From TrEMBL:
It is a multi-pass membrane protein. This is Multidrug-efflux transporter. NCBIfam families: matE. It holds the Pfam family MatE. Keywords: Antiport, Cell membrane, Ion transport, Membrane, Transmembrane, Transmembrane helix, Transport. It comes from Autumnicola lenta. It is found in: Cell membrane. The chain crosses the membrane at residues 45-64, 85-112, 132-153, 165-184, 196-216, 236-257, 269-290, 316-335, 355-376, 388-407, 413-431.
């Protein structure tokens, strides 16, 4: 019989997770590509979409950490054959996500102008950012409930359902982007940036409806809310809280990068928006194997199968690095053409091309960091992940950015800082995993 860490079993989880994972950044990339090619105020609109996209990602990554916590707890209980113990936990966790999303929406929508002013946006860019965000923010409850359900699917070792939901949402987004941004003469008025926001909202609603169908038809769980708090709710929230802090530090780095780029000028933040969204696209692509590490790692820990846990770490790291090298090769071949997909402004393209090589060079390092991120999340090691991210952000990324910026390196400073950031993350996780689990695998 195939082992739990065979190529087939890993890829059964990883490949659908890759496809599901890239659907979310694909929505943002589609928005940027379509908006960046609108003739009227394209640079300002592109900058606004990039700033808002970064902020949305920051918020969603922070508050959606319950997805990872749910996945870890479900997978560990699956490995221990104790799924019955978390049946009341699932509706409680999903309900928590929904209520939290309403609070996030109310607070951020009210302070939208102040938030995007903090990104150094002003004038037309600030106006576009506010308008775009007010619509996109309506999707918080849709996205966070969907993510919680996706966490259940992953914990059950199934990423195929999430893939189907995400792919359908991406198709809806792409189709509506073209219809609503450019309009159809005589039928649909051109809505430009606001059209892209409505397209994203429709995509999120589509994904939620499909996720609910799979949840009720395919899983052993339900939405019946018990007022007796499940004993696993406290560990779940504690794990999520550590991951909140970790993700807040992660997004502080992204915020700082975008704030500096905006301060350099509109062409810099436009180029940075393209670079950041491509980096996120690559990250979600590679993260499919991290999802496999999360799901399988949690199950192996629940079964106390340390030998296969060690094998898992080696195999998914190898697969992820190979994926990273393939992405690097493709982008190296089409180096100049990639920028043209997003904008035609010569200055923006020149800035993009001058820095894109750094984004490509760091991909194998990213792959190792993301793999062990996923495994550690599945093992419930949220506290260590929190500490690593805090150290990488405040002792690595921030000093590198400040020093490099002092020497006038601008976009190069930002991406050199990200490279240092990822080197610290990957090395710290590899060292800790070897220290903690190498002896147990025998």
């Amino acid at each position: 019989m195939a082992t739990s860490v065979s190529f087939r079993n890993i890829n059964k989880i990883a490949i659908p997770a890759i496809i599901a994972g890239i659907a979310e950044p694909l929505i943002s990339l589609t928005d940027i590509a379509v908006i960046g090619n609108v003739e009227e105020n394209s640079v300002e609109a592109l900058a606004a979409a990039g700033i808002v996209g970064s902020f949305l990602s920051a918020i969603i990554w922070i508050v959606a950490q319950t997805k990872t916590a749910i996945s870890a707890i479900v997978s560990q209980h699956l490995g221990a054959n104790r799924l019955h113990a978390v049946k009341t936990l699932i509706p409680q966790a999903i309900g928590f996500n929904f209520l939290f999303s309403l609070v996030i929406y109310a607070v951020t929508a009210f302070f939208a102008e102040a938030i995007f002013s903090a990104y150094n946006a002003e004038g037309l860019i600030l106006q576009y950012s506010e308008n775009y965000y007010q619509i996109r923010a309506l999707g918080y409850p849709l996205t966070l409930v969907t993510f919680a359900i996706f966490g259940v699917f992953r914990g059950l070792q199934n990423t195929l359902w999430a893939m189907k939901c995400s792919l359908t949402g991406a198709v809806v987004n792409v189709a509506l982007d073209y219809l609503l941004v450019y309009g159809v003469e005589g039928y649909i008025p051109a809505m430009h940036l606001e059209g892209a926001a409505f397209a994203s909202l429709a995509a999120q609603a589509t994904m939620l409806v499909m996720a609910l169908w799979f949840f009720f038809k395919k899983t052993p769980f339900h939405f019946k809310l018990s007022f007796n708090i499940n004993p696993q709710m406290r560990p779940l929230l504690l794990m999520a809280a550590n991951l909140f802090v970790r993700t807040a530090a992660l997004n502080f780095a992204i915020y700082l990068a975008n704030a500096y780029a905006t301060d350099y000028g509109k062409n810099y933040i436009a180029a940075q928006s393209i670079l950041m969204n491509i980096w996120l696209f690559f990250s979600f692509f590679i993260d499919g194997y991290a999802n496999a590490g999360n799901a399988i790692g949690g199950r192996l820990l629940g079964a106390r199968d340390y030998k296969n846990l060690w094998e898992l770490s080696k195999k998914i790291s190898l697969y992820a690095v190979l994926i990273a090298l393939i992405l690097m090769g493709i982008c190296a071949i089409f180096y100049e053409q990639i920028g043209l997909l997003f904008n035609k402004e010569a200055t923006v393209l020149a800035l993009f091309s001058s820095v894109f090589w750094i984004v490509l060079l760091m991909q194998p390092v990213n792959a190792i960091a993301f793999m062990f991120d996923g495994i550690f999340k599945g093992l419930g090691e949220a506290k260590y992940l929190r500490n690593v991210l805090l150290a990488a952000t405040f002792l690595g990324f921030t000093p590198t950015l400040l020093i490099s910026d002092y020497f006038g390196l601008k976009l190069h400073a930002i991406w050199m800082a990200f490279f240092v950031w990822m080197l610290i993350r990957s090395s710290a996780l590899v060292i800790q995993f070897r220290r903690k689990y190498l002896d147990k695998e025998v």
